Amino acid sequence: MYESSGDGWSLSAKTNGQMLLALYLRDLAGIQHAGQPVLCPVAPAVKPVAAAEVPEHSSAELKQEWQQWWHRLLRSDAAIEAAISPPHFHSFDDSPSLQRLLRAHYGAAFVWARSRQTECDARTRDHAAAGRWSLLEEMLRERGASRASHDGAPLSLTLVELPLAEPRAWFLEPGTVLLSHDLPRHETLFRSYLEPMVELLP
């Protein structure tokens, strides 16, 4: 995790274990074009080996249940994290297809997510050591100074780094950005995504 702040702004960068689990299961089950925003596949790629386990008549149901779970994670992961509760996953009793997927693959999903979380945490520290967050901090300083002159509230931006195959970023209101863990390595691309997002901060 990375945190920094200044006069009128604050920045944090971290990963999210529950989102990692959800994305692993999404790709494992071959669920496509699901959730908002629609994120690209994870990296390293997860083979959709569980897709064959999902009966055709259940695939739409699984997709809908996954999307509902993802939506809850985007709103607040703390309550969901406490509610995963293996091995029976009773918090998913209202999502039977997703519950079956969790019961069958939670062990592998957990190991994969834990490994990716360790890698993402290392990349966050690497970005900090290489000064890659300074570009974003400067954007926040400039925008914060502009807002302060108009009695604006302090800016707050949270980055959620995820192991995604494409170097992209997705803005979530009010002040969260999902981004590929490798995006900060591409300075020009990083700026092109984050600059307009900083302008959108309330």
Structure, explained:
The protein has 2 domains: 87 residues, Zincin-like (2-Layer Sandwich), CATH 3.30.2010; 95 residues, no CATH class. It contains 6 helices and 5 strands. It has a 5-stranded mixed sheet. A hairpin with a 2-residue loop joins strand 1 and strand 2. The two termini are 23 Å apart. The mean pLDDT is 89.
Main sheet characteristics: 5 strands, mixed
Number of domains: 2
Separation, N- and C-terminal Cα atoms: 23 Å
Instruction: Give the amount of beta strand, in percent.
Output: 5-15%
Q: Give the ordered list of helices and strands.
A: EEHHHHHEEEH
Q: Radius of gyration, rounded?
A: 18 Å
Average pLDDT: 89
Give the uncertain stretches in residue-range form: none
Strand arrangement in the largest pleated sheet: 1-2-3-5-4
Shape: elongated
Q: How many individual helices?
A: 6
Would you tell me the structural class of the helices and strands?
alpha/beta
Number of strands: 5
Estimated helix fraction: 40-55%
